[in-house]
Amino acid sequence: MSAVVAEHDDHHDHGPAKGLLRWVITTNHKDIGTLYLLFALAMFFVGGAMAMVIRAELFEPGMQFVNPQFFNSMTTMHALVMVFGAVMPAFVGLANWMIPMMIGAPDMALPRMNNMSFWLLVAGVLLLASTLFMEGGAPASGWTLYPPLVLQTGKALPFAIFSVHLLGISSIMGAINIIATIFNMRAPGMTLMKMPMFVWTWLITAFLLIAIMPVFAGAVTMLLTDKFFATSFFDAAGGGDPVLYQHIFWFFGHPEVYVMILPTFGVASTIIPVFARKPLFGYSSMVHATAAIAFLSFIVWAHHMFTVGMPIAGELYFMYATMLIAIPTGVKVFNWTATMWKGSMTFETPMLFSIAFVVLFTMGGFTGLMMSVAPADFQYHDTYFIVAHFHYTLVPASIFILMAAGYFWLPKWTGHMYDERIGKLHFWLSVISVNVLFFPQHFLGLAGMPRRIPDYAVQFADWNMISSIGGFIFGASQLLFLYIVIHTIKGGTGEKVTSEVWEDAAKHSLEWTLPSPPPYHTFTTPPTVIPTEHI
Amino acid sequence: MSTNNDYYIPHKATWPVIGTGGLLMMLAGFANYLNGSSAGTAWMGLGLAVFIIMLAGWFTLQAGESESGMYSTQVGISYRMGMMWFIFSEIMFFAVFFGALWYTRNLSVPWLGGEGTKAATKELLWPAFEAVWPTNGPGKVGGNFESMGAWGLPFLNTLILLTSGVSCTWAHHGLLAKNRDQLIKGLAVTVGLGLLFVAFQASEYHEAYTEMGLTLGSGIYGSTFFMLTGFHGFHVCVGAIILSVVLFRSWKGHFQPENHFAFEAAAWYWHFVDVVWLGLFIFVYVI
Ligand code: HEM
Ligand SMILES: [Cu+2]
């Protein structure tokens, strides 16, 4: 036995494989984290380009650049690429990089499977992207893929469906790995209630993912058999029901939006205390609020279907259940605010993005609450109001926090400091333009402008033009982020960064006790001191 | 206090990318086939072959590592958690189809029959439709059919699967008691019962298609019946293959009372398939 131990002892001295092959066959959590993050960044720009097409077409009333079919393909693909290609992988990338370092583990629990989840993601996105070039165009039904409309898709349909399957398998593998890592790989003394919030939120998110991805896979499998194998799941003539699809989709879809927001909460809870120089306010209430949100997310799905003709009891139940979510969400917002209260705050770029997140996410939460009122939602549903709602919860929330995470941890990952002036410029341009982009969409929606339509009545012209201008500025500003990432990787400001990077950060979390950049293998011997400042 | 050194972290994994490539080929080929392209099937076959080679290669590698004692208890816990959560994801997958069955039987078919606020719709659109289960809907999609009874082959199959659960546990006891003979016999019986189950189901399908007019296209009844039993049957096949591999390894002398994750995983999977069948038997056949 001891011979065997000695034999794999020297495994730890192995550096990465040479050349490009390193990235293909790596099992190292840092390598895989980097792959995920870079892939997500690339997809952020691909999805962003599609959004630019949408805003260009909507700049003025009338048909300008693209035909309606292609326009609808753009709204569909934009959403799918952003959700499955950018936001989710970015958070998985953060999980890979940070969770083992935060809990004092030598790596992820199942390193080979980790590699496979990444490559399945690439395969899934490749299948999805290939549909853009097919006869009949990419899916144009909206990301929800509702039948019967989606069944009119051309050659793209089976490719899109199989892409969902691959993305699902990838997410499930990633989630299993995260759960096994957190439950099984913590350093001695790292009890569950001492884990950084980011680890907690990912633990809960991973449960959500394992529960919902198979549901989505099942839904699209039924689409496949309805189209190609004569089943009648969603066809009333055969005794099925298209609304059944909506129920299944949203049973997946609502928890899915929390898959994107819970890790966001986790990162925010990690960053804010560091720059407020105070422990996180209400750590255990944060944990419980996260769990409560996750639980509630499974029992509110039909708030997406208020106008579909549900029995009145259903409308009422889903209305009140949805309103409940505002409670744990409110707990979180108050906790972040209380963490900053009387803190000795400084406003480096990660903190700026985090503060903007707290404010603007709350906006998105409030519009959500408005839409949870079933009779009111008859007016808002399928208008630009809901587009404004979810973009507030996703762009100045999830995306901003991803940016914040980038600024916060890039010095740790690369050992170089980013350029604070350009970072601030990026922040201010983003925070202003994102509001110019999405705030007017509330007005458009309340006035009745439908979503997913390439043309509109002239009364909507002014706000659309303003929104598009905001969109172009927001899109262009993100190139600054790209520049900063490349610049930092290549050496940044040249300033030497310490292992802590941020003042007293090591009191909050273990990654700051490691050198910047950390060696290829970390915590081959578990840490002995567990930081608790974040609690 | 442990050092993390005895947690085995593999390096330079080649099987995952190979497997991904195989899956991608298989699915892209299948999609092309569905779109009527002739090259589709060839790609599917090729992808499947690559995928199978990957499975064989990856599992051989893991089995070798396990037998040479590279996995600490902690590694074993990671594998067990992995398997448990994988089975949970499978449960959710089946739940979708059970949910669809529940929803159509209890909500949407009665609505089609005019229940609740839907009376006028029914009178105007399909006055002749009666909401009884089994149904193929107001459009009588797929033509006349007979529904599948519970107390013939399906009941026999229930007994078969339950017995196989017992034989699987018996094999486990053999393994724990270092009784290799019992282990091998138990596993062989389990695999044999699994194959018998599949054979009976195949003959049931044959009868449905040739004599009862019952097909996948027989409206919502046919859809839910064949999707649920079909996916389950597929899982029985997968489970039987896994058990055969475990049987082969037992015969080669693998597994010790304190180190037999592969056996446990296979057994859990088999019991899961068993429990799903009980659900099917009750909700698809009996009720
Ligand atoms: C306070 C919490 C929230 C409430 C009460 C809420 C409520 C709602 C409601 C009622 C709708 C349906 C509107 C309609 O279709 O008419 C909706 C849509 C949506 N929400 Fe939220 N929401 C909340 C938070 C969030 C969060 C945190 C996210 C994402 C991170 C999110 C993402 C979305 C998305 C993507 C849609 C649109 C889905 C679609 O139709 O394409 N929401 N929300
Ligand atoms: Cu929702």
Automatic annotation (TrEMBL), chain A:
It is found in: Cell membrane; Membrane. It comes from the Bacteria. The keyword Chaperone does not apply. It holds the Pfam family COX1. Keywords: Cell membrane, Copper, Electron transport, Heme, Iron, Membrane, Metal-binding, Oxidoreductase, Respiratory chain, Translocase, Transmembrane, Transmembrane helix, Transport. Its EC number is 7.1.1.9. PROSITE patterns: COX1, COX1_CUB. Gene3D superfamilies: Cytochrome c oxidase-like, subunit I domain. It is a multi-pass membrane protein. It catalyses: 4 Fe(II)-[cytochrome c] + O2 + 8 H(+)(in) = 4 Fe(III)-[cytochrome c] + 2 H2O + 4 H(+)(out). The chain crosses the membrane at residues 35-56, 76-97, 118-139, 159-185, 197-224, 257-275, 287-306, 318-338, 350-370, 390-410, 422-443, 463-486. Pathway: Energy metabolism; oxidative phosphorylation. Its main location: membrane. This is Cytochrome c oxidase subunit 1. It comes from Candidatus Methylobacter oryzae.
TrEMBL record, chain B:
It is a multi-pass membrane protein. The chain crosses the membrane at residues 12-34, 40-61, 82-103, 151-171, 183-200, 220-248, 268-286. Its main location: membrane. Keywords: Membrane, Translocase, Transmembrane, Transmembrane helix. Residues 3-287 form the Heme-copper oxidase subunit III family profile domain. Its EC number is 7.1.1.9. It is found in: Cell membrane; Membrane. Pfam families: COX3. Coiled coil: none annotated. It comes from the Bacteria. This is cytochrome-c oxidase. It comes from Candidatus Methylobacter oryzae.
